[in-house]
Every structure is written in structure tokens, then in C-alpha cells.
Specification:
The chain is of the alpha+beta class. The chain is about 20% helix and about 35% strand. A hairpin with a 3-residue loop joins β6 and β7.
Length: about 130
């Protein structure tokens, strides 16, 4: 299971990589494995300001449909069109080309409440 140390995680299996005042958000390798083959992404929140914990989109896999949630509050400034066009990218490279949204961070302090790699590992072992 790939769990990079340089990003933060949520208990609902989203990750966030902060770059200045922006953050890239996606689902974890664990989540993509549990979902199975991802066949469709619905993300219609570009331009919207959302609070931490609000759904920003949904992921349809062969097995199920699952909502994806904001790990921190911010404005969705970009949706990864490559992932929309080819959702299998999320299974192949969830932390790289398979990112889902880019957000303008509202409050950087919220990042401190997220999980580091070791804490996330402990959650998925349970």
C-alpha cells in the first residue's frame, strides 16, 4: 500500500498535498483499491467554496458509488480534466496524475488537524 509521507490524510481516505496557498486533493491508494476499477467521476463543484467535510464530488466504481469530501475548507479552482476523461488514472496513480481537485486554501490551520502517514496507516490496519 502506497502511503507517501509528504502529504496529509483524512479518515475518509482523501489526501491533500499543499503547495503554497493551493492544495491538490484526491483519494488514497487504499480507497482506490477498496473501490475497485473506477469508471466515472462526477465533480461539478469548480468555482464553489466548500467547507471541510462537504462533498465535492462522487466516484463511481464497478462495485459502488462513493462521495469524496473536502479535507480542508477552500474554493475548488480546478478539476483534473484528465481524470474526468480517463477515471482509471485514479487507480493507476492516485497521488500523481490521478489527483481530483485543486483548491485555494481558506484556512491553513485546518491542515494541522489532518493525519500524517503513520496515523493514516494505523487507521487502515484496523
Amino acid at each position: 500500500m502506497n502511503i507517501p509521507k509528504d502529504i496529509k490524510y483524512t479518515e475518509s481516505h482523501e489526501w491533500v498535498r499543499v503547495e503554497g496557498d493551493l492544495a491538490f486533493v484526491g483519494i488514497t491508494d487504499y480507497a482506490s483499491t477498496q473501490l475497485g476499477d473506477i469508471v466515472f467521476l462526477e465533480i461539478e463543484t469548480e468555482g464553489e467554496e466548500l467547507e471541510s467535510g462537504e462533498a465535492y464530488g462522487s466516484i463511481e466504481a464497478v462495485k459502488t458509488v462513493s462521495d469524496s469530501y473536502m479535507p480542508i475548507s477552500g474554493k475548488v479552482i480546478e478539476v483534473n480534466q484528465n481524470a474526468i476523461d480517463d477515471p482509471s488514472i485514479v487507480n493507476k496513480d492516485p497521488y500523481g496524475d490521478g489527483w481530483l481537485i485543486k483548491i485555494q486554501i481558506k484556512n491553513k490551520e485546518e491542515i494541522n488537524g489532518l493525519l500524517d502517514a503513520d496515523a493514516y496507516k494505523n487507521i487502515i490496519k484496523e
